[in-house]
Design brief:
By secondary structure, the protein is an alpha/beta fold. It has six helices and twelve strands. The termini are far apart.
Length: 287
């Protein structure tokens, strides 16, 4: 009889422990879900680009004689643990200048509004930004960066080394002065789960520049989203896996494209091509 009683007590304890473990696991999942619900994505217009020589965005004569209008979006991601700005658009000196065609004539560029005004329209301020990261440091992504000198600049080590080296000097694709005030630097090598909960992940995808990267987001309603930087510049580039002739390292770009598409297949993420005009209104609706 005593043995039966002990067995009954033991069985009750085991069941109780299992229930407590299950409740604790459910609680953890609910907490993670709550954290993911809190993330917010804001999409902004960083200017417009008319590619007068579209063939730069391919090799050979793929787009010879063609022109194409491109967007230049930037983004702010609000998270309970901090706020990240991803890219900053074209130089702010363009505001009020209308269309400007720099020397060489490959592009005609314009910017309608400042970054401060656009942030204020969303109830945000320059001082609210804790982290700044660029998909890469081409001038059309770093144009308003110096406003955020108090933010932590998250950058691939390879990109930072290139930015501080001699080979960037005189290269018209870069404007180092536009991010010269960013001195609070966090160099990374590879991927970074910024808030350590899987909702905001910077992923290394080199090739377009030495330290090109993309941004993976887990949005509460839209689900997985990737801000693709300049992995592609417009829809056809992605459909045909076309690599621009001006990329820093074309073979490395091709390898990154393979990794990128494998990651998209794995996550079932919605890809936002940042220079694709058709994707700008789509990104603005994502929540």
């Amino acid at each position: 009889m005593r043995i039966l009683i002990l067995l009954a007590i033991f069985s009750t304890l085991v069941i109780s422990c299992k229930n407590e473990t299950k409740e604790a696991t459910q609680g953890t999942k609910e907490q993670v879900a709550e954290e993911k619900v809190a993330i917010k994505l804001h999409t902004f217009d960083g200017g417009s680009i008319m590619a007068n020589n579209l063939n730069l965005f391919a090799q050979g004569d793929t787009y010879k004689g063609q022109r194409k209008a491109l967007a230049d979006a930037f983004y702010v991601i609000e998270h309970p643990k901090g706020t990240l700005i991803w890219d900053t658009g074209l130089p702010e000196g363009l505001v009020g200048q209308g269309d400007v065609t720099p020397e060489g004539g490959a592009f005609t560029i314009s910017r309608k509004d400042s970054i401060k005004n656009q942030l204020n329209a969303k109830g945000l301020a320059i001082e609210d930004i804790d982290h700044i990261a660029f998909s890469h440091i081409h001038f059309d992504h770093t144009g308003a960066a110096n406003h955020f000198e108090n933010a932590q600049w998250i950058v691939q080590e390879s990109e930072y080394t290139f930015a501080k080296g001699d080979s960037i000097k005189g290269n018209s694709f870069y404007a180092p002065d536009s991010f010269s005030k960013l001195n609070n630097v966090k160099q990374i090598s590879g991927d970074l789960d910024l808030f350590e909960d899987g909702t905001v992940i910077i992923k290394s995808m080199p090739g377009h520049t030495p330290g090109h990267q993309v941004l993976y987001l887990e949005l509460p309603q839209a689900g997985p989203v990737i801000l693709a930087g300049d992995m592609y510049h417009f829809i056809e580039n992605r459909e045909k896996r076309i690599v621009p002739q001006f990329n820093y390292d074309i073979p490395e770009t091709e390898e990154s494209i393979k990794q990128f598409e494998a990651f998209v297949d794995e996550t079932k993420a919605n890809v936002i091509i940042q220079h694709e005009k058709k994707h700008l209104p789509v990104a603005k609706k994502l929540q």
